[in-house]
Amino acid sequence: MNLFRKKQPEPADAKRLRRSLNAWDLTFMGIGQMIGAGIFVLTGVAAATQAGPAIIISFVVAGIACAFVAFAYAELAASVGGCGGAYGYAYALFGELIAWIIGWNLAFGMAVALAAVANGWSGYFSNAAAGLGFPIPEALTRGPFAGGILNLPAMGIILVLMTALFARVKRSAKLNTAIVTVKVTALVVFIVVALFHADTALWQPFMPYGWFSTAEDGRTVGVLAAASLVFFAYRGFQNVSLAVEEAENPQRDVPIGVLSALGICSLIYLCVAGLLTAIAPYDVLNVPSPVGFALLRLGYNWGAALVAVGVIVGLTSTMLVLFYGLTRALFAMARDGLLPPFFVKLDVRTDTPINATVLCGVICASAAGIVPLGPLAQLVNAGTLAEFMLVCLGVIVLRATRPDMHRPFKAPGGMILPILGILSCGALLSFLPLVTLMRFAVWILVGLVVYFAYAARRTGALTAT
């Protein structure tokens, strides 16, 4: 058996994607996925139910953990490269079996996240349509398991984005840049308005839930528990590394994109979290749109409307980047023989993976329109943290086994940053509910069954060597 054979360099005639993305495009790609439901919704939920005004510290803790991981992603993207992000790194450093587990989890996580965000987008879109005098029947905004027929807005937005991804990736990147500009503008307006109304007296008590504890109903509360929740507002910067084959200068542009996206979003998150709890009592922020709610309390109806537009646009860009990352991950796995060659086919005009795009669009649109995704979405959390820990471990392994390897970008501090990345992500993983971790383990077992039943036989990993 050869389950841990490592990926060899691609032959010259291997299927490749068109190089058309610069550092600017990659930075906006990261921002596009990061700024979405996390900052517009989770900030208020975490402040009201877990951390209070100390939500600022929660964002700092989560941001530091992600910074460790971002340096690891940047180093591997510049040194190892290869399409598929963490999957590609795992294949090159740990072998086929580990790569399959990561790829299996990565693709599932992005698919579930895409469908889940589409559900959130549908809610905001339906409210906006009703406010404009064009109400959508409730039965057409909920799936059959939620008392409706189909969630048509959720299905529709995924199919619209599917057509957008048919275009050359450069055009999709330009669309994403325009979308990101709109939602960042909405957040900047909030920050400017809130600065003139901030009252630090609302920060008392600053840490009402302490650092970490378990409430009577079993919920985990405190600054650290909130950090494990708002951590997912940072999710997305890592998907910049999925574009390494489409970057004009991957060794330079991918590290810039990863670190710039994380840095810009971290600054915005800290400003929004601090000001949100300084213009409204933290215990009233457990609402679907806390940023808009806070502006309404101040009498800025136009500001709340602008934020609503920002939310709709923001979730659109989040879905666009998720969709992009999902198709590229499947393309990479199929090219390596772990998935059927169906996923490798490129459109002759645009050099985009057309089969993967269509299939993902149909499946995710169906899921968004029918399935309640709350319990499934929790699996994304555990999978993301496990992925981050493996990437940090990959940096350690590569430095130990290939110390003389050329590294266009190298994370500073020797082994310190990747070790801290593993420890910090492991700590955040421990704050997740036990039932989530159990579901994650079951999903990995299902993936192993698929691997041994199909992928390993197709690649020849089960043959004796």
Series of H and E elements: HHHHHHHEEHHHHHHHH
Parts with pLDDT < 50 across at least 5 consecutive residues: 9-15
Quickly give the CATH architecture: Up-down Bundle
Oligomer description: single chain
Count of DSSP E strands?
Answer: 2
Distance between the termini: 6 Å
Main sheet: which strands, in order across? 1-2
Task: Put the structure in a nutshell.
The chain is an all-alpha fold and 465 residues long.
Descriptive account of the structure:
This protein is mainly α and 465 residues long. The protein has one domain: Amino acid/polyamine transporter I (Up-down Bundle). Helices cover 66% and strands 1% of the residues. It has 15 helices and two strands. The chain has helices spanning 23-34, 37-51, 55-79, 86-93, 96-131, 152-166, 169-195, 223-230, 250-279, 290-297, 301-335, 354-370, 374-401, 416-430, 434-459, and strands at 213-214, 220-221. Strands 1-2 form a two-stranded antiparallel sheet. Strand 1 (213-214) and strand 2 (220-221) form a beta hairpin. The longest helix has 36 residues, at 96-131. The protein is globular, with a radius of gyration of 22 Å. The model is unreliable at 9-15 (pLDDT under 50).
Descriptive tags:
single chain, 465 residues, mainly alpha, Amino acid/polyamine transporter I, two-stranded antiparallel ribbon, 15 helices, globular
